[in-house]
């Protein structure tokens, strides 16, 4: 998933090889992570797909099943991985992830501490942000989940920049060996205020911290704890609204087309002045917000360690 | 690895300012934001006075400075940790106390303060610090004691901003640069809010050792943010017409030589041209002249910028060469262009309000590598809707989505937690997706 050195750039990786991780795309909301293996098959409602048909095809190809159904084989990325990974815990999605990485000012070479690891959704994006010269130390107090996360990082190819530790950060704080070395700390814990003092010891001066909490009471307690050693304390929430797009054909062309997206005409539509008057078909492309949206995931509280000296 | 070491060093060294570096000055806790370059002669205007920025050179980013009044006049001097603690907000053990006061008797007749302007000047001449003046104002206010605790805090903060203004030395990075421009000159960055910019970088899988194609008509903010997130690999800043788009904001990022070398420009015609093709010759000439005229254009822009960005203290030509500020945006070498032609770009980001979205995307898609993600930014929904529809019907991409990010900030204070009164209602739209192989050619 990551190009860890210049000789292995993403754009050089063109064709699917045995052992590669691919993202099987059926629809925008139906995707699955599959490791390609000669002799294996992939089965879904469109039929049976032989992996051997996939080997040697370029990423982004359309592949067919025995019943002429098809899927697309996409190259993995942290965004796609977040959508297909198995949820052992509630995860962070792209909206929060992208804002966290921007606001924590994470760039290649940074050292980032994270607790808890959870299902590794954010961790995978953090790995991308710090690679190839930085590192992510992520901690979870649940041994099995930590092990599953380690497996996932191997599978996605980010394990060289991620170290998973089993540790109760709320109880013990971060390990002393990392004192003063962190460029950023991310907390997704039930009681993050218990970890603020330890986080302050880990961070370089003016380095950044983020705490993700679903409840406002948690945010209030965290902010109080932050005021002693941190400055520039800011709390946000971020959401994404999606839009749907539809083509509406001019109703004078009733019975013309066969495109599945054609809407039955309901109102006479004035064609705009700019449209081609020569063409007999005219249509309007319209967009509107999707009816459903995520209302809340959690509050993101950011802060910077005060400069001492 | 030596590469490892220099990379680590550069992350480290960026934490302390140096002569010639670009900085973001935050005056009075976000009230005023100014980009500047720290040179021998650069100054900052606060109130009616110009203060030299020399004391800021060599200090860590995040340092706080306060105007100090001394025998030689006033200057900016560094506030050390212990001095800051006196700030009321730092009281970690704030216990919410029952508040019995309210504002029923408060009359706003401008007669509450008994100290006059001259009195304050006199205090200054006697060497009183900003904090001492604030205490004097509070002592001489007839209404202060009757105010609620919150109101007293607000009063104190207001006086501090006027009589003891503070300047925070901030590091210019993608986040702070975007936020500042969004607050001050949003039109120059096409109303791209910081959460929108962060989504573009994620959706386009911006990472090290990639080749990212960028069409940046937002002053260079996008190019700079991509380069910062990549560290290595190439950012190809592409222009589709005859001359490159301005990229001045890139200079604010404090990129070293290594990264500057990796921000290159090319025209679409250069990328499309075939070897031994006569049009290639023309293409080169056009871009060569465009490049040199662009350099002239850049220096002109440097000189005329102050009228728009009146807050920027730009260095003179002498200072520029003395400080050796690395320049980004050189023309891409033929070798690099050939590599892109052979392998394609690993992703695409477009922020081009003045170009036709669909036509731009249609021209650039063939240059993307297999399964490459892309993110298209626009202020207006319609061009993205049209583009998405065409990409769908021509089966050029999957996973297509038009998103509109929403960002809300909260004030979190004991007994005073609520969303902020001011909010940005709009930060742009994004069309994202992944390129697929054309089945016909597979």
From TrEMBL, chain A:
Location of the region described as Disordered in the Swiss-Prot/TrEMBL record: 250-292
Keyword DNA-binding: no
Domain of life assignment: Eukaryota
Substrates-to-products reaction catalysed: adenosine(58) in tRNA + S-adenosyl-L-methionine = N(1)-methyladenosine(58) in tRNA + S-adenosyl-L-homocysteine + H(+)
Compositionally biased tracts (Polar residues): 272-285
Residue ranges constituting the tRNA (adenine(58)-N(1))-methyltransferase catalytic subunit TRM61 C-terminal domain according to the UniProt record: 69-304
Top EC class for this record: transferase
Location within or outside the cell: Nucleus
Gene3D superfamilies documented for this protein: 3.10.330.20, Vaccinia Virus protein VP39
EC numbers: 2.1.1.220
Pfam families assigned: GCD14
UniProt entry tagged with the keyword Lipid biosynthesis: no
Keywords tagged on the record: Methyltransferase, Nucleus, S-adenosyl-L-methionine, Transferase, tRNA processing
Similarity-based family: Belongs to the class I-like SAM-binding methyltransferase superfamily. TRM61 family.
UniProt name for this protein: tRNA (adenine(58)-N(1))-methyltransferase
Gene transcribed to yield this protein: LOC115751181
From TrEMBL, chain B:
Annotated protein name in UniProt: tRNA (adenine(58)-N(1))-methyltransferase non-catalytic subunit TRM6
Family classification: Belongs to the TRM6/GCD10 family.
Subcellular location: Nucleus
Keywords, sorted A to Z: Nucleus, tRNA processing
Keyword hit for Nucleus: yes
Domain of life the protein comes from: Eukaryota
Protein task: Substrate-binding subunit of tRNA (adenine-N1-)-methyltransferase, which catalyzes the formation of N1-methyladenine at position 58 (m1A58) in initiator methionyl-tRNA.
Oligomeric and partner information: Heterotetramer.
